[in-house]
Amino acid sequence: MIGRRALWCMVGCVVLGGVMLGRHAHEAGLRRDLLRADPATIMGDPRLAAYARQRGGAVFARACASCHGPGGQGNIAGGVPDLRDGEHLYGEGRIDEIEQITRYGIRSHHSLGWNLASMPAYASPHPSADKGIHPLTPAQTADLVQFLLGMGGRATDGAAVERGKALFAGAGGCYDCHGSDAGGDSSIGAPSLSDAVWLYGGSPARIRASIEQGRAGVSPAFLHTLDPADIRAVAVFTFGLSRQDGSHDGG
Ligand code: HEC
Ligand code: HEC
C-alpha cells in the first residue's frame, strides 16, 4: 500500500520532471537554432544572441581564458592577442572567422588551421625554411628597430631609420609578409607594425627579440574537445568582446 507521503512525492517528481523536460526541450531548440543559423545573422536575433553569449561566456572561461585572460585582454609576455581591440591578426574578426580559428586553431598542426607564415628568426643562421631569407647582423637589426620605432614617432636615430627603411623594403624581405607600408597582411596573420598595437610588446627590446628570435604563436584546435554548439557560441561571445566599446581604431 502506498502511503500519502509517498503519493505526494510521486506527484512532485512528475511535475518537476515535466518542468525539467520542458527546459531541456527549450535548450535543445536554441542549440539547434544556433547551429542552423547563418553566423552573420546571429547578432540580429536577440534571443539567439543572448543564448550564444551566455553559453559562450562559460566556454570562454573554461577553454580560452587561461591564455586570453578572463576578459580577453591577452598577454604580451605570451604573445596572446587582445581580443577586445578590434585589431585582427587573421581576417576581419567576423563570427565565422573566429569560429574557424576556434575549430582548427593557428599553427595547431591541424591541416585546416592557419599556418601560412611565421616570423623568421633573423639572428639564426637559417632564419626560416624559406631559403630566400638571410640572417641579419645585430647592427642591421638595430636599424630595423629604429625604423619600426619611427613609425610611432619614437625613433632616436634618424640615419638608422633610413637604413632600416631600406632593409625593410629590400634585403630584409620584411615587406613580403608585413606589406611595403608595414600595415600587415591579415590573410597570412602578419601583424601591422605601423600601429600602436604590439602582439609581443613594442619596447625596443621586445621588438628586437621578435626580429632576432622569430615568433610563431599557437592557438589550439578545439574541434575534438568542444561540442559544435560550444564552438559557435564561444565565437559569438568572442566577437562580442571586440564590439563592447566604440574604439576600434586599432590604436
Ligand atoms: C594555449 C593558449 C591559447 C588558448 C587556450 C586559446 N588561445 Fe586563441 N590564441 C592564442 C595565441 C598565442 C594566439 C595568437 C596566434 C598568432 O600569433 O598568430 C591566439 C589567437 C586567437 C585568435 C585570433 C585573434 C586575431 O587577432 O585574429 C582568436 C579568434 C582566438 N585565439 C580565439 C580563441 C578562443 C575562442 C579560444 C578558446 C576556445 C582560444 N583562442 C584559446 C593562444 C590561445
Ligand atoms: C615569412 C613572413 C615574414 C617575414 C619575411 C617577416 N615577418 Fe615579421 N612576422 C611575421 C608573422 C607571421 C608575425 C606574427 C607571428 C605570430 O603571430 O606569432 C610576425 C611578427 C613580427 C613582429 C612582432 C610584431 C608584434 O606585434 O609584436 C615584428 C617586430 C616583426 N615581425 C618584424 C619583422 C621585420 C623587421 C622583418 C624583416 C627583417 C620581418 N618581420 C619579416 C611574418 C614575417
Protein architecture, described:
The protein has 251 residues and is an all-alpha fold. The chain has 2 domains: 41-115 and 221-251, Cytochrome c-like domain (Cytochrome Bc1 Complex, Chain D, domain 2, Orthogonal Bundle), CATH 1.10.760; 138-213, Cytochrome Bc1 Complex, Chain D, domain 2. The chain is built from 9 helices and no strands. The structure holds heme C (2 copies). Residues 79, 89, 117-120, 122, 133, 144, 172-174, 176-178, 189-191, 193, 198-200, 207, 210-211, 215-217 line the site of one heme C.
How would the blueprint of this fold be written?
Layout: H1 4-36, H2 46-63, H3 65-68, H4 95-104, H5 138-151, H6 158-169, H7 174-178, H8 204-213, H9 228-242
The site of one heme C (HEC) has 23 residues, from α3, α4 and α9.
